[in-house]
TrEMBL record:
Catalytic residues of the enzyme: 68 (proton acceptor)
Protein name, entry field: Peroxidase
Similarity section: Belongs to the peroxidase family. Classical plant (class III) peroxidase subfamily.
Organism expressing this protein natively: Rhynchospora breviuscula
Cofactor note: Binds 1 heme b (iron(II)-protoporphyrin IX) group per subunit. Binds 2 calcium ions per subunit.
Coiled-coil regions listed in the entry: none
C-alpha cells in the first residue's frame, strides 16, 4: 500500500473511533434505525395502541415512566431494571407502571431486529406515542440512545421532583438538568392525563376529630376539595387513585392549565406553579391556546428526552431484556 494512502486510512479509522465513543445528544438522529430497523417506530406505535386501547391508564403511565427515567440517570432506561436496590425499589417509583408495554415492544423488536434497538429509545417512543394516542401533538424524536448499566435507588431522591416541592425547588431541579422554567410549566402539563394515588396529595388534607378529611390547603377550590375528600375518604386504600385532570382525564389537552387557574390543580406541586409570576404567565397563555401548548410541548419533550443520553459503547449497551442489564 502506498505510504501516503496508508497514513490517510489510519487517520480516518482514528477519527471514526473518536466519533463512535463520544457521547452527546447531537449523536442522536430521527433516522438512526433507518437501515438497521426501519419499522421500529411502527412496532412501538402498534404496541402502545394495543395496550392503551385495552387499558386507558397506560398513556399516563408511560409518560410518567419516561420522566422518572430521564430525570435520574439520564434517558437510559435505568428505571426499567429490576432487582434489589434499583431505581424501581425507591418509594417514589413503586407506583410506576407501563413496564409491560416497553417489554412487549422490545420482545417484538428483538425478533425483527435482534440486538439493534435500545430499551431507552423504545421508552421514549412509547411515551411520545402515548401523548399522540390521547390527542396530543405528534413529536419527532431523535434516536440512538444506549441503555445504562447502572440503576440505584439512592440516585432517585436527589434527582426527582417531590409533590411537596415549591416552585423554587422544582426550578432548581429542572435547571440542574438543563431545563428552564418554561420547560417546567410545559412538562407539568403532562398531568393532563394519568392518575395519582391519594397519598400523593394527602398533605393537602388532614383528619378531624371524627376521622373525616378536611382541607388544610386553602388554594384548592372548595367543590374540587370536596370531591377529593369523598374519593380519598378515611377508609380508602393505598391503591385508591384519582384522575390528575378532573375535567378531561383521558384527553391530552390544555385543560390542565385552566384547572390550575381555577384552583383545581391536584398535586401541591401543580398548585405551586401559579405562585411564580413567570410560571403563571405561561399557564395563562397555555390555557388560552392549545396550539401554543402543543408547540411548546414538542420542544420541551425533545429537550427532556435528551438529558444525559449515552451513545458510546463505553457508556452503555443494547439490552436484550429491558428489565436487566446484559450479563
Amino acid at each position: 500500500m502506498h505510504q501516503g494512502l496508508g497514513t490517510l486510512l489510519a487517520l480516518v479509522l482514528i477519527l471514526s473511533c473518536i466519533s463512535v465513543t463520544s457521547s452527546s445528544s447531537s449523536d442522536l438522529s430521527p433516522d438512526f434505525y433507518a437501515l438497521t430497523c426501519p419499522n421500529v417506530q411502527l412496532f412501538v406505535r402498534n404496541t402502545v395502541s394495543f395496550f392503551s386501547t385495552n387499558d386507558g391508564t397506560i398513556p399516563g403511565k408511560l409518560l410518567r415512566l419516561v420522566f422518572h427515567d430521564c430525570m435520574v440517570e439520564g434517558c437510559d432506561a435505568s428505571v426499567l431494571i429490576q432487582g434489589n436496590g434499583t431505581e424501581r425499589t425507591d418509594p417514589a417509583n413503586l407506583s410506576l407502571g407501563g413496564f409491560d408495554v416497553v417489554e412487549s415492544a422490545k420482545r417484538l423488536i428483538e425478533v425483527m431486529c435482534p440486538g439493534i434497538v435500545s430499551c431507552a429509545d423504545i421508552l421514549v417512543l412509547a411515551a411520545r406515542d402515548a401523548v399522540e394516542f390521547t390527542g396530543g401533538p405528534s413529536v419527532q424524536v431523535s434516536l440512538g440512545r444506549k441503555d445504562g448499566r447502572v440503576s440505584l435507588a439512592s440516585n432517585v431522591r436527589p434527582n426527582i421532583i417531590d409533590t411537596s416541592f415549591s416552585v423554587e425547588e422544582m426550578a432548581k431541579t429542572f435547571s440542574s438538568k438543563g431545563l428552564s422554567m418554561e420547560d417546567l410549566v410545559v412538562l407539568s402539563g403532562g398531568h393532563t392525563i394519568g392518575l395519582s394515588h391519594c397519598t400523593s396529595f394527602s398533605d393537602r388534607f388532614q383528619k378531624d376529630a371524627n376521622g373525616s378529611m378536611v382541607p388544610i390547603d386553602t388554594s384548592i377550590e372548595k367543590n374540587f376539595a370536596s370531591e377529593l375528600m369523598k374519593k380519598c375518604s378515611a377508609n380508602a386504600t393505598a391503591a385508591t387513585t384519582v384522575s390528575c385532570d378532573p375535567v378531561t382525564p383521558n384527553q391530552f389537552d390544555n385543560q390542565y392549565f385552566t384547572n390550575l387557574l381555577s384552583g383545581k390543580g391536584l398535586l401541591k406541586s401543580d398548585s405551586e406553579l401559579v405562585n411564580d409570576p413567570k410560571a403563571e404567565a405561561l399557564i395563562d397563555s397555555f390555557s388560552k391556546s392549545q396550539n401554543s401548548f402543543f408547540d411548546s410541548w414538542a420542544e420541551s419533550f425533545v429537550k427532556m428526552t435528551s438529558i444525559g443520553v449515552k451513545t458510546g459503547d463505553d457508556e452503555g449497551e443494547i439490552r436484550i431484556v429491558c428489565s436487566s442489564a446484559n450479563g
